[in-house]
Amino acid sequence: MKDAPRRRPRQSDIAKLAGVSQTTVSIVINGRHSDSIRIPPETRRHVFEVARSLGYTIDPVARSLAGGMNHLIGVYTFESLFPMDHHDFYYPFLVGIEAAAEALGYDLLMFTSATGSDGGRSIYREGVNRLGLADGCVMLGKETNRDDLVRLRDEGFRFVLIGRRDVPGPVTYVTADYANATGKVVDHLVGLGHERIAYLTAADPGEPSADRDAGFLAAQTRHGLDTDGLVLSVRKEEGPSAEEVRRLLAAGATAFIAHESVVALRLLDLLAGMGVDVPGECSVAALSDAPDAVPGPELTCFRIPRREMGMRAVELLVQQLESEEEVEPRAVELPCTFVAGQTSGSNRKES
């Protein structure tokens, strides 16, 4: 004869064994705070110890419905594919998110299938916030749905963006200081004697591109650079054409700054095909770091603190979740690291 299945422990069992009321157990287990009932930290620890000894498991959905915290942080990307490859631009963000979540005692919940019937990415499905299973969410990606962000904020759902996004009203975000980093790249090239610097800006609009453009414009003004005929809008996926590069060289460009490292790498290939020596005859720099394991000389660029941005985003979110008072939205900028690289050289003529 088989033994009868063991009954799952209940909160009443925890209360009996711990010697406290069932109300106390409910408040502790569900992560709630009560103005009328003060529960000492040692009592909370004792309740959790008893719960573990009984094999009690917390139902996250029930806990959420009870108004408590699950200690679950959602991670949502606006891109159609979740960035799990270590060569992906977004992968270091995830490494930082995971490290901070583990350090702060939170689990991660990845949202990977939030595609609507129209094929677009949306947080809301049939009017329901799918991120609500988590206590709050870290969000990243370029294809941001700004209407969803405004709705989330107005509903009181806590989230932190990785990357600056222009939305009506304040939201908390962590970004890199692209403007200052871009200025340092220009300063480096000017310090090498370059006065005619071609700027390959992004054809697709976006806040990171706008910040880079602002940094370049400020540096151009600071150094009194003449960029007439030297500014070209290019798409990241395509890069400049050989004809466009020849035109920039004919206009007197001795250095190129590309808004993305992949554009700079394509530019290096084109220049090599034209017989232009880099950095002997021409310098090339990028306003982002190159992917790992890319062959060739080290690119002059700046490194984006992606891992640190992921960690900081989690820290800011947890501050919102655990504060007993409303936390004002914050904008945090982290510095980038300039890399002199091997693709920039002197343009000074020997006397």
UniProtKB/TrEMBL annotation:
Keywords: DNA-binding, Repressor, Transcription, Transcription regulation
InterPro entries the record matches: HTH_LacI, LacI/GalR-like_sensor, Lambda_DNA-bd_dom_sf, Peripla_BP_I
CDD domains, per database record: HTH_LacI, PBP1_LacI_sugar_binding-like
Domain HTH lacI-type: 9-67
Highest taxon, organism lineage: Bacteria
Keyword DNA-binding recorded: yes
GO MF: DNA-binding transcription factor activity; transcription cis-regulatory region binding
Protein name per its UniProtKB record: DNA-binding transcriptional regulator, LacI/PurR family
Originating species: Nonomuraea wenchangensis
